[in-house]
From TrEMBL:
Source organism phylogeny: Bacteria, Bacillati, Bacillota, Clostridia, Halanaerobiales
Cofactor binding mode and count: Binds 1 zinc ion per subunit.
Pfam families: Histidinol_dh
Keywords: Amino-acid biosynthesis, Coiled coil, Histidine biosynthesis, Metal-binding, NAD, Oxidoreductase, Zinc
Protein function: Catalyzes the sequential NAD-dependent oxidations of L-histidinol to L-histidinaldehyde and then to L-histidine.
Enzyme Commission number(s) from the entry: 1.1.1.23
Gene that encodes the chain: hisD
Cofactor(s) essential for the protein: Zn(2+)
Family: Belongs to the histidinol dehydrogenase family.
Name used for this protein in its record: Histidinol dehydrogenase
Biological process according to GO: L-histidine biosynthetic process
Coiled-coil segments on the chain, per record: 276-306
Origin species: Halanaerobacter jeridensis
Entry binding sites for Zn(2+): 260, 263, 362, 421
Pathway the protein contributes to: Amino-acid biosynthesis; L-histidine biosynthesis; L-histidine from 5-phospho-alpha-D-ribose 1-diphosphate: step 9/9
Length: 430
């Protein structure tokens, strides 16, 4: 079980570095396998898609069964309960409301001399959503990736997700896709799905951007895809950091740490606190609550490998450690969380107060749960409307407006040795 360590201990920095470096995207063996799949899809299209789906998922598909049909969606509705549909609709409504507030309008700055500059916003035409499958259903991933695309005005939304061995799709995932308004669903996952969306095949539509998390093979395939299409980010294993003082409730803290530890053996759950007593109490709570989990082994392995209980000298140092870690999920369990909000620079999502439990952000709060991991919150943002929108600059000049700046433009062009650039301006005044 976890040891309580102080920031002054010799192993504290090494422990944090181990956690942050746990999701390297430079594994040569895995990258080689992904490259081979990519090349096969590029050369052989659908046949490669079918081959790898049979190999990795056990599903034998062809051109007539790769795409989910309307009758399959109708059958999925018969398999899910009304309470799930109601909960799903609440989630969709809240996510839609949050992302609507991010929309921006075109603007123009019109000057007296006839010069006009501005910005035009246009939605992407085609977007692909990757939704994990396999061991569990993730309808929330459909919501979090699909709703912002819809709000942004994307014309065509395709979704890929691994099928079961019998070729069926998880009914909860299918219902979520229908409720969100996904246009096309393909029964394919893994690196081959990313390649199919990036390159296009006879059956799969090429998209402009791919969003959504997956395993290391999906992530490496998205790395290859960048340039053919855009991607949202390279997502690693889940993580949570709880920043706490002596007022924190150890039972709540432990429960929230376990909410991420149960995801994956590589998930990370970290407590940074100013109170050694709280750290010790959280340690005991983790022991007790682990016994109640159906995914006890996974959570225990995650805690053992990538969990940590760190005691800082004071709140200032605790905040410094938190910003260095730049967590995907940051919970702030201190006496006055809003008082330090301005000091928290690096985090994907920030949960303030003892009742802001991380899973609420995953499902129903409204903000997106597709978040930067592995320290990338230092420079990445959560998935948002801007991920589905392009910006175009607008420029219009009158002769009067151009005459005011022509000499400056010509001078810079000549310094750069670009005579044609300079001449493009000169000819308008000859």
């Amino acid at each position: 079980m976890l040891k309580v360590i102080n920031t002054t201990d010799s192993g504290a920095k090494e422990k944090l570095n181990k956690i942050l470096n746990r999701s390297s995207f430079d594994n040569e063996g895995q990258m080689e396998a992904v490259q081979n799949i990519w090349d096969d899809v590029k050369d052989n299209g659908d046949q490669a898609i079918f081959k790898y789906t049979a190999k990795f998922d056990g599903a034998e598909l062809d051109e007539s069964t790769l795409e989910v049909q309307e009758e399959e969606i109708a059958a999925a509705y018969e398999k899910v309960d009304e309470e799930f549909i109601s909960a799903l609709q609440t989630s969709i409504a809240n996510v839609e409301d949050f992302h609507q507030k991010q929309l921006r309008e075109d603007w123009m700055d019109i000057k007296e001399d006839g010069v006009i500059v501005g910005q035009k916003f246009s939605a992407l035409e085609k977007v692909g959503l990757y939704v994990p499958g396999g061991r569990a259903a993730y309808p929330s991933s459909v919501v979090m990736n699909g709703v912002p695309a819809q709000v942004a005005g994307v014309d065509e939304i395709s979704m890929v997700s691994p099928p079961a061995a019998d070729g069926s799709m998880n009914p909860y995932t299918l219902v979520a896709a229908a409720e969100v308004g996904v246009d096309t669903i393909y029964k394919v996952g893994g690196a081959q799905a990313v390649a199919g969306l990036s390159l296009g095949t006879n059956t799969m539509m090429q998209v402009d951007k791919i969003v959504g998390p997956g395993n290391i093979y999906v992530t490496l395939a998205k790395k290859l895809a960048f340039g053919y299409v855009d991607i949202d980010m390279l997502a690693g294993p889940s993580e949570i950091l709880v920043l706490a003082d002596e007022t924190a409730n150890p039972r709540y803290v432990a429960a929230d740490m376990l909410s991420q530890a149960e995801h994956d053996p590589m998930a990370s759950s970290v407590l940074v606190t100013t109170s050694k007593e709280v750290a010790l109490e959280v340690k005991e709570e983790l022991k007790q609550q682990l016994k109640e989990l159906s995914r006890e082994e996974i959570a225990a392995e995650a805690l053992e490998n990538y969990g940590s209980l760190i005691v800082a000298q004071d709140l200032t140092e605790a905040i410094k450690v938190t910003n260095q870690f730049a967590p995907e999920h940051l919970e702030v369990k201190v006496d006055d969380p809003f008082a330090i909000l301005g000091k928290l620079r690096n985090a994907g999502a920030i949960f303030l107060g003892e009742y802001a439990a991380e899973p609420i952000g995953d499902y129903v709060a409204g903000p997106n749960h597709v978040l930067p991991t592995g320290g990338s919150a230092r420079f990445y943002s959560p998935l948002n409307i801007d991920d589905f929108i392009k910006k175009s600059s607008v420029i219009s000049y009158s002769k009067e407006g151009l005459e005011k700046v022509k000499d400056d433009a010509i001078k810079i062009a000549e310094v750069e040795g670009l005579d044609a650039h300079a001449n493009s301006v000169k000819v308008r005044f000859e």
